[in-house]
Write a structure and sequence with these properties.
alpha/beta, Four Helix Bundle (Hemerythrin (Met), subunit A), Rossmann fold, 434 Repressor (Amino-terminal Domain), 3 domains, eight-stranded mixed β-sheet, flat
């Protein structure tokens, strides 16, 4: 996510850190680099101009020039202005309405509207809301089936419209059902088109007038770049949008839409879609995103992700084992890999770790899957006592996992490093553990 922009801006930040003196000349040079980075990331030109002007005005003021660490002060300004550009504060859903609170989903076909409806239902379900999903998309083949299957998968209610083919009647019936069955939230998925047309806009305006939703969320594909911004503007003019959901942000290394959409539409970016998993919908926090863009990581989101995904009983069991000085074995190592997968895999974690952009290539989800495959090829005894794994056993394990013997050696080396870290933790050496962390992740040296 945002790899290109993050890499460029992290480089600018690195060159500024520790500078004892900031002059107008090196401010201009820095801003030139930032401007290029933003334009390459597909950020809209008016947005770039506004951002650069705001940073320049503040950078050439007393705030930076009289600072004891001017380089750090300038980085702080870039961070603050990036945060402002993306909305300043997190804008959560407003569900303050007589139940059911209706959320209307709008957007073009292929933007991820139906999938996002399901993800949003899961997110609200986890907030202890009783949610009903309904589809008013009677045009796209299998659209209703897709949402029904998602609802089943997420153990969420789905409104069955029967043979009804009128989107307005389906929406009204779903609202009546939600009211009678005491649902907290009704999420209505609507029809999209391949491009904006008057028929689609008239239909969604009519749905909006009928349902009177508390939230009208526009779902847009981040990979459309500048087009995403133009489509957002058109929908914003046609509908009283309350927020925007940017999908497929993990597939767009540039990320310009994330920076532009708030500035262009004036509507808050409420959620970002990352990955295909039902849990792949994150609340959008401008300040945290600015930190990620500048290579500072997003530890708060990482903690929230861990709280929602990690098996706390398993984590406590491992912690007790480490405290008692018992050996950390390959079964424990495998368990940690599985916990990481629940949190979205290594790629999702790396995106939120400070300085992850500067980490060597090779630390990816495929290498993590390979580690698990090798451990699965071992006998229970080998997992409990890795020291017995000698040459002949390594050859058998490699053959079983479909890898070279070197891969088995590499895993055992990484496991030894993880084992040392666990011993340090058991002795309370957290700082030592952090230094040892470098070799634990696949592909890192």
């Amino acid at each position: 996510m945002l790899d290109n922009l993050s890499g460029r801006l992290a480089g600018v930040v690195k060159s500024l850190r520790g500078q004892a003196r900031i002059t107008e000349a090196n401010v201009q040079d820095t801003l030139r680099q930032v401007r290029l980075a933003l334009l390459e990331a597909d950020v809209a030109l008016p947005v770039v101009k506004d951002f650069i002007e705001a940073v320049k005005t503040r950078a050439l003021g007393q705030e930076v020039l009289t600072s004891l660490s001017p380089g750090q002060a300038l980085i702080g300004i870039v961070h603050e202005e990036l945060t402002r550009l993306m909305g300043g504060e997190n804008a959560d859903l407003n569900l303050a309405a007589t139940p059911p609170a209706v959320i209307l989903m709008a957007g073009l076909q292929g933007s991820g509207k139906t999938t996002t409806s399901g993800k949003l239902a899961l997110l609200l379900k986890n907030r202890k809301k009783k949610v009903l999903l309904a589809s008013a998309d009677v045009y796209r083949p299998a659209a209703i089936d897709q949402l029904r299957q998602l609802a089943t998968q997420l153990d969420t209610s789905f409104f069955e419209a029967g043979d009804e083919r009128d989107p307005l009647k389906i929406a009204q019936a779903a609202q009546d059902h939600a009211r009678k069955q005491f649902y907290d939230v009704l999420i209505v998925d609507t029809a999209g088109r391949l491009a904006i047309d008057e028929a689609m806009m008239n239909e969604i305006r009519a749905l909006h007038a009928t349902l009177k939703p508390v939230e009208t969320l526009f779902v847009v594909d981040a990979m459309q770049g500048q087009d995403a911004i133009n489509v957002a503007r058109a929908f914003n003019e046609a509908l009283p949008l309350t927020g925007i959901v940017l999908t497929k942000l993990d597939g767009d290394a540039r990320g310009g839409a994330a920076l532009s959409v708030r500035h262009i539409t004036g509507k808050p970016l409420k959620f970002i879609g990352v990955g295909e998993k039902p849990t792949g919908l994150e609340a959008f926090h401008p300040e945290r995103m600015a930190q990620r863009i500048l290579g500072m990581g997003d530890v708060l989101s990482l903690i929230e992700q861990a709280q929602g995904s990690v098996d706390m009983a398993e984590a406590r069991k491992l912690a007790d084992k480490v405290k008692k000085g018992k050996d950390f074995d390959l079964e424990d190592f495998k368990s940690q890999i599985q916990q990481m997968r629940k949190m979205g895999g290594l790629s999702a974690l790396m995106d939120k770790l400070p300085g992850a952009g500067q980490m060597p290539a090779g630390a990816d989800d495929k290498s993590v899957n390979r580690l698990e495959g090798i451990i699965n090829s071992m006998t229970p005894q080998e997992r409990r006592k890795p020291e017995i794994i000698k040459a002949s056993r390594k050859r058998r394990i490699a053959a079983g996992a479909g890898v070279q013997v070197q891969e088995v050696n590499k895993l055992l080396k990484q496991f030894e490093q993880a084992q040392k870290m666990m011993k340090m933790m058991g002795k309370g050496g957290i700082s030592k553990m952090m230094r040892g962390m470098k070799g634990m992740l696949p592909g890192m040296r």
